[in-house]
Structure formats: C-alpha cells, structure tokens
Amino acid sequence: MAVYTDITDEELATLLADFDLGAPLSLKGVAEGVENSNFLLETEAGRFFLTIYEKRVSEADLPFFLGLMGWLAAHGYPSAPPIPARDGELLKRVRGKPCAIVAFLSGLSVRRPTAAHCREAGRGLAALHLAAEGFTLTRANNLGQAAWSPMFASLKADAEGLKPGLAAQIDADLAVLAAGWPQGLPTGVIHADYFPDNVFFQAGRFAGTIDFYFACCDALAYDIAVALNAWCFEADGSFNITSARALVAGYEALRPLSDAERAALPVLAHGAAMRFFLTRLHDWGATPAGALVRPKDPLEYERKLAVHRSSPDLVLFGAPASANASAGKPS
Amino acid sequence: MAVYTDITDEELATLLADFDLGAPLSLKGVAEGVENSNFLLETEAGRFFLTIYEKRVSEADLPFFLGLMGWLAAHGYPSAPPIPARDGELLKRVRGKPCAIVAFLSGLSVRRPTAAHCREAGRGLAALHLAAEGFTLTRANNLGQAAWSPMFASLKADAEGLKPGLAAQIDADLAVLAAGWPQGLPTGVIHADYFPDNVFFQAGRFAGTIDFYFACCDALAYDIAVALNAWCFEADGSFNITSARALVAGYEALRPLSDAERAALPVLAHGAAMRFFLTRLHDWGATPAGALVRPKDPLEYERKLAVHRSSPDLVLFGAPASANASAGKPS
To answer: Quick one: which H or E segment has residue A38?
Structure first.
C-alpha cells in the first residue's frame, strides 16, 4: 500500500510520447505493492499498469523481471506482459526513476483461500514453472538459504526485541537449515513470492499471476514451500492439511514431484518461513514511525517457523506419496 | 491517499449480489481521497468506483451527496452518478459502513494549471452551478463563515505552535470576516472543494468533476473564491492574476456575476483561505504520527490568508468589470 512517486500530467504525457498508446484518459495511483509505485493507466489504446521502480528493486534486475513477464505471456501463461516503447525498449524513466508500462490483467485475489483455491493455485504455480522453461536470462535468489545467516547477523537485537530468547532459537533454526538444505533438486525460474494477493481468480478458477519482482532461479519445490506457508495456514496459526494436500495435488496435476522433491518439502517449508520472517523482521525495524507503509508482522512467520520446527512431518501430509499410509491422519 | 477499509472477495460478492452489475472482475484500492476508502471496481457490466464512507463523512449527509451526483449526471453535467441497487437504493453497507457504487469517470487532473486550464475550470464550475438548479435537497455549509470562530477556539495553541503570533492574527482575520461577510448573494448548490485534483481534463478541455463530499448550499460566488485560492496561486506563493482573470472569465461565459458578487470576491477569497487553513490546522494537530495519511500543510493556506489580508483588491483583478480601469495593472 504505497505510492512513493507521484507524477504530473506533463510527465505522463512525456512518457507516453515514447509509446504507441495514444493519449492518456485517466491515471489512478493504486494502493498495491509495497516495493514500487503503481498506477492504473487508461489510454486511447486500453488499460495498463504503470510501475515506477523504487529503490528496493535493483535496476540491474529489471531486464530479468520484464523479460520473464514478456516470456510467460508469450508462452500462454496468464500474466501481464510489459508493453514495448516505439524504440523496442521495455524500460523507460520518469523523474529519473526506471518505469515500465505493463498490460492490465483482470482478476481478483482471495483473502481466505479455500482448499479449492489452493488446488487452483497449485496448478497455476506448476503452469508458471512449465511456461518459464526455455527462458534464458538468469537471476540468483539473493534471498535464498545462503543469505539467511548473514542477514540475521544484523537483526539479532530486533529478534530479541520481538520476543526474548528468539535470537538463539533462530540461530538454531539456521544451523538446522544449513545442515539439511537439499541439493540437486530440479531448478528453474520460481516466482518466490506466490502469496494469495499475487494470484488472481475468476469464478473460482486460477486466472493469472502478478508481481514477478522477486522471481529468480532456484529449486522449483522451494516455490511450493513458499506457497504452502502463504496459503495453507489458518488465521489462528494452525496448518490446514486439506489445503496443503490440495495445493500439492493441483501442482502435481501439471508437474509431478520427484521423490527427492517431495521428501525435501518439510525443510524447504521451514526455510521458506525463515526467509519471510527475516525480511519482515528487517522491514519492521527499518520502517520509520510516520511511514505510509505499514510493515507486515514478523511474528506471523515466527509462528510458522515454530510449526515447522516442532512438526517437520506436517508438510508431508500435504504431499502424499501414492502409498503413503499416514495421509489419512492429519496430526 | 488512504485505504482505511479493506474488503474481502466474499464481502464484495455479497455486496454485488444486491446490484445488476454481474460478477466482479477486478478490484484495486485507489490511493485517492482522504475522507473515504476508494476502490476501482471492474465487473461484467463495466468499470465503477466503490466508495466506503469513513467516519469523517456523516451518514445523514449521504442522501444529499448521492442525490446531487445523480441529479448532476442526469442534467448533463460530466460527473459520475451513483448506481442504484436492485431495490433502488443508492446506499449499501459493507463491514457495517455505508458504501456506494458510482460510475467511472475518465479524465486527468492537472498538477500545475495554466491560465487556459483555469478558464476551463471556471466554465466547469459555472456549469455545475447551473446544472444543480432545481435540485431540491439541501445541506447547510457546516464549514461556512459562522463555523470558523468556534472552530478556531480549540486550535489557538496549534496556531501558535505553527508560528508564534499567529493566533492573534487569525483572531483579527476572523473579526474582519465576521464584520464584512456578504449577505444576500445568490445561493445554490456549491462544490465547496473545487481543487485541481477534483477536476478532470481531456486534451486541455474541462471533462468533469469528482468528489462532491463537501457540497452544500451557500453563496455561489464563494465557490469561485475557493477555486481562486486553489487554482491561481503559484508554488512560490504569488497570486497569478492572469489565471484568476481566466477562471472568472470562464465562469462568466456561462453565468455572469452580479456587481454584488464581483465586489464580494475579495472577502470571499479571504474567507475561503480561512476555511482551508482551519481544517488543515485541525488535521495537522489531529493526525497521529504513524497514520497512513500525510496531512496537508496548513502553512500553505496561512500564506494565502496573508496575501488576502494585505492585498484585498488583488482578487478583483481577476474579475474585471467591463470598465475596470485597474484591470491592466497587476499589483
């Protein structure tokens, strides 16, 4: 929920002069996306999103993000492609900041996903992984497992401030994750932020994915782990086995998991909880009191960490092997 | 810039079940309007604005506002009418708060209006006054001249905090305004917040007006005074005579002013500056440090007050009588 950069009608006219989109008809700042400034732009050619990239997005990564968005749309994935300017460029500048115009994608995100939504979301995630095959640009996951310990080094006091004793607990988690982190799993382009607010539905069916600004190359199953944390916890902190099973089944309907991927889901989910705990902890401490953005509560992910720590098998119930006798008994 | 109330997909579906607008296709929180929560809503029937009324808007006033919006659109004024529900009601509730669905109005507001924009804006304001003739509901101006002294009584310390000596200066202004406030001018429905961000243009021509949530019944010329303050000051605080003259000329092209109205413009403009100074001073003091809304600077209107206080004739240059010899010499 943020508009960091505001632009004038003159600046908009100057920008649009580089595009074949006709005259602007309306421009509305949208309370969406914490990382960038987003505007819903209507021109004579239709509706678009204008995104101005703020400092948290590295400009060097933008060709990967925009290239991926174009690639996915061109390969049949329901996502919003960037619109090239007349000179073929996807990236322009406004007020000295990089910006892009992206097609408008219809759809509604769900606030409280049902198991049926989770199945659809899983299918949409597998479709993303398959559609991205062949995309040649790469981007390392700079928020992946190797980054967590260095990141936490400067956040220990914040963790203790949240909850006394938490710093030692996180250190112990980090050691477990470092020792058990899976190697050699199938890799590819992952969304890395596949949360309900980034997934659109129409009439209950998966209808598209937005916000590719964390996309990177990593283990595909890690993306499932991120999604299990984001989609399958109830508001009271309990893990919904039915939703998890539906999400993985939806995924496997398009891309079956290998045994190694399935076996890795518990540690991947533990790690995915760590990644969002750490970035939320960082933002929590770094957000000034008067800021327009309300940071997300790091304790939500601290509770998810605790679930994975104490019940590592839990996630496996979401991914029953064909002859998994325990599938029937949610713990 | 505020979304105070967020609504879920289920709440939206429940609301839309009362309307003949088909299924929802997208919903975006819009960073627009400080008083209400606004969403750009797309359904199978088209595009709309969903507004949820927050505590600052009195629910008892909503029939006036919504009725006026419907009246204006029905009488050819470019504005967005509310959409009746199946039961004919304009007002519904979501999360216990009143809400309405309003048509989408295309257009872009201008950030730095030129004299040509001011002429168009003046024409649009006169058209509003004429289109509203015959609208039978009434609403007193609860932010009119009679309200200012009582309002300031509780804000003196805030004024002194802004600028030592300011409280006595404002008290003196209030006495001047009370003594000289014009009576018997032509009255009607006024917009009362006719600022550049509430006026749309297309290709340089006036294209519509939004945000009628301060509309009320008062002297029509007071609306011009509000607009002169909002449109005709430069960023450096100077009053742009050319813009003021264009605004009044644009207005008079549709609705010529009486001599009494023209003569009253200086005190009306002084008073209009007082009204916005006082509400901004109130919001400045009342906004908690962590709020999502950045209050507007009351000092901007304190400077406008000072201009009208020291050069009461200035505004008259914007409204030359047919034989006004002083029209040619901006002071």
So the answer is: strand A36-43
- Report CA Rg, chain B: 20
In terms of Cβ atoms closer than 10 Å to its own Cβ (0-12, 13-18, 19+), residue A77 is buried
| Amino acid present at A285 | G
Chain B residue with minimum CA distance to A292: B292
Non-local CB neighbours of A17 within 8 Å, separated by 6+ positions: none
Is residue B1 situated within a structural domain? Answer: no
Rounded average pLDDT over A170-197: 97
What is the per-residue DSSP string for A42-84?
A: EETTEEEEEEEE-TTS-GGGHHHHHHHHHHHHHTT-SS-PBPP
Instruction: Tell me how long chain A is.
Output: 331
**pLDDT band at residue B330 using 50, 70 and 90 as cut-offs:** very low
Long-range contacts of A66-73 (CB under 8 A, 24+ apart): A66/A90, A66/A91, A66/A100, A67/A135, A67/A137, A68/A132, A68/A135, A68/A137, A68/A189, A68/A212, A68/A215, A69/A102, A69/A212, A71/A131, A71/A132, A71/A134, A71/A135, A72/A128, A72/A131, A72/A132, A72/A135, A72/A212, A73/A103
Q: How far is B80 from chain A (nearest CA, A)?
A: 14
Cα distances (Å, whole numbers) of residue B171 to A66, B159, B246, B274, B300:
58, 11, 33, 11, 18
> What is the predicted pLDDT for the residue at A139?
97
Domain assignment of residue A97, yes or no: yes
Structural domain span for residue B78: 9-103
How many structural domains compose chain A?
2
Q: Verify that A166 and A48 share a domain, yes or no.
A: no
Residue from the list B1, B110, B291 with its beta carbon closest to the beta carbon of A3: B1
User: CA B120 to CA B129: how far, in whole Å?
Assistant: 14
Is residue A109 domain-resident?
A: no
Percent of chain B residues topping a pLDDT of 70? 91
Q: Which residue of B has its CA nearest to A105?
A: B26
Q: What is the CATH number of the domain that holds B65?
A: 3.30.200.20
- Of A8, A31, A111, which has the smallest distance from its Cβ to B112's Cβ? A8
Based on the fold, state whether residues B166 and B52 are members of the same structural domain.
no
pLDDT tier at B2 (50, 70, 90 boundaries)?
A: very low
Query: A111–B292: do the CB atoms touch at under 8 Å?
Result: no
Do residue A67 and residue A178 come from a single domain?
no
Cβ-nearest to B29 among A24, A30, A107 = A30
B145: phi then psi, degrees, rounded to nearest 5: -55, -40
Q: Do A192 and A263 belong to one domain? A: yes
Which of B26, B289, B290 lies at the smallest CB-CB distance from A108?
B26
Collect all residues from A whose CB is shorter than 8 A from any CB in B: 1, 3, 8-10, 12, 23-32, 40, 42, 106-112, 200-203, 289-292, 294
Contacts of A110 in chain B (CB under 8 A): 8-9
Longest CA span, chain A: 66
Helices (H), A133-258: 145-153, 156-162, 166-180, 220-231, 241-254
Which residue, A103, A138, A164, sits at the end of a domain? A103
Q: The whole model's pTM is what?
A: 0.83
